[in-house]
Amino acid sequence: AQSVAQPEDQVNVAEGNPLTVKCTYSVSGNPYLFWYVQYPNRGLQFLLKYITGDNLVKGSYGFEAEFNKSQTSFHLKKPSALVSDSALYFCGSQRGDTGRRALTFGSGTRLQVQP
Amino acid sequence: GAGVSQSPSNKVTEKGKDVELRCDPISGHTALYWYRQSLGQGLEFLIYFQGNSAPDKSGLPSDRFSAERTGGSVSTLTIQRTQQEDSAVYLCASSTNKPGLASDTQYFGPGTRLTVL
């Protein structure tokens, strides 16, 4: 069974400061991990994914995420937050085989960047 | 190119009525997924189509929910005898899911907001 946890319902950060949105996972075998962002009244937009290789993954809009196997975490980061980054962020996992491709999502974290 | 499209964008219906939600995936994508986003349950998987294989229906919450995919492209999610707890945003996603590809990045449509009165 897979599960993904996003322990913070909301993260507040000032514009220009670094931001972190936390995600931990429980996946049997090798996990494939994803981050998506959702703006109001929009679908989910893909940001980045970890499959294998480098633990630091770079994605769209200056976001990056760090895969940490020992801590079973995949936190989303950005060095300098923008007001336009304010949105709902979802972490997701996918089984690392060709069986079930459906994504299991965390509960979402609302990021609020204050000007 | 065009992304995943869904229609209608909003649907208001009365309890007990049937509704049909449509998804048009990205051209060439063989895999199609339906998810539901609701306040109480978060984002949950409903059903998955891959090519001509039998769909994975393991996420459908009850037998009132069904989906089909015609010609390997457009999909319709049908909810019969709608209940108030069916109120949610229904999201469709598609992906290439090529054989041998290690992972499968899914691209989402804008969703259909269903309100059951």
Structure characterization notes:
The complex is a heterodimer of chains A (115) and B (117). By secondary structure, chain A is mostly beta strands. Chain A has one domain: Immunoglobulin-like, CATH 2.60.40. Helix content of chain A is 0%, strand content 52%. Chain A contains no helices and 12 strands. In chain A, a hairpin with a 5-residue loop joins strand 5 and strand 6. Chain A is globular. The model of chain A has no long low-confidence stretch (mean pLDDT 92). Chain B is an all-beta fold. Chain B has one domain: Immunoglobulin-like (Sandwich), CATH 2.60.40.10. The radius of gyration of chain B is 14 Å and the shape is globular. Chain B starts with a strand and ends with a strand. At the A-B interface, strand 5, strand 6 and strand 11 of A face strand 4, strand 5, strand 8 and strand 9 of B.
Main traits of this protein?
heterodimer, A: about 120 residues, mainly beta, Immunoglobulin-like, six-stranded mixed sheet, 12 strands, about 50% strand, globular, B: about 120 residues
